[in-house]
Amino acid sequence: MPTPRFLADKLCPVRAKRERRKEARPGELLAAALDLFVEKGYAATRSEEVAVRAGVSKGTLFLYFPSKEELFKAVVVENLGGRFTEWNQEFETFEGTTAQMLRYCMRVWWERVGLTQASGLTKLMMSEGANFPELADFYRQEVVRPGHALLRRIIQRGIDRGEFRPVDVDHTIYSVVAPMIFLMLWKHSANLCVDEGDNFDPLKYIEMQADAVLYGLSTRPRAEVEPDEAAGPSGAA
User: Fold this and answer.
1) Residues whose CB is less than 8 angstroms from the CB of residue 50 and which lie 6 or more positions away in sequence, other chains included
2) How far apart are CA 116 and CA 72, in angstroms?
3) For residues 178 and 194, what is the distance between their CA atoms, to the nearest angstrom?
4) What is residue 179's predicted lDDT score, i.e. its pLDDT?
5) Which residue of 129, 193, 197, 222 could cross-link 136, Cys pair, CB 3.0 to 4.6 Å?
6) CB-based contacts of 121: which residues, under 8 Å, 6+ apart?
7) The dihedral of CA 213, 219, 221, 224: what is its sign?
8) Is the distance from CB of 90 to CB of 154 less than 8 angstroms?
9) For the whole model, what pTM was predicted?
10) What is the mean pLDDT of residues 88-99?
């Protein structure tokens, strides 16, 4: 009769600790790689550095990620690309107006991505993508295209419901993307994009940019676009 897992762990705590450590290693490696890629860039980051920061051997790193390229791709999927399933599900269950949805989308992007270390990946790709075309294509496939597709769905929803004017959706999405790119550059460029005396507030900036986009899209002046009407899924603020 096989020994139950919990009993085996109790009888052999060293083995249990090693197994738990093994399960945690991929996440630790991805976290270490994200930090180093954002701090140093892709070209300057060495696999050995990632292993050292994660507290494992280089051999262990390559056991999970055979190359630096595969490691970078995993970092992109873990921190950016893998989020679109969740965001599309939120789109499907959202019960508020499309103006509320767009505000929510921009605010949540800042909270879940822009405010985190992961936002540095976009700046990295903008600065190094031309030197690594395969990685640039991967980033477009995993991040840019799904992001644009979601924004198209949101804007098209507003048009279909009569909340937004008929517009060129493919170009309108860049009115939403541009402020997000600015925030990522601001966050990862020693705040050089704004003057030190401006007391720059990213959330206020997002609200102002949402105002500008929504006032231009709305079929009615100021209809459903006031900041205090911003809501989350199912109309929850």
Assistant:
1) 29, 32, 33, 36, 61, 71
2) 17
3) 16
4) 94
5) 129
6) 34, 37, 38, 75, 76, 79, 80, 139
7) negative
8) no
9) 0.80
10) 92
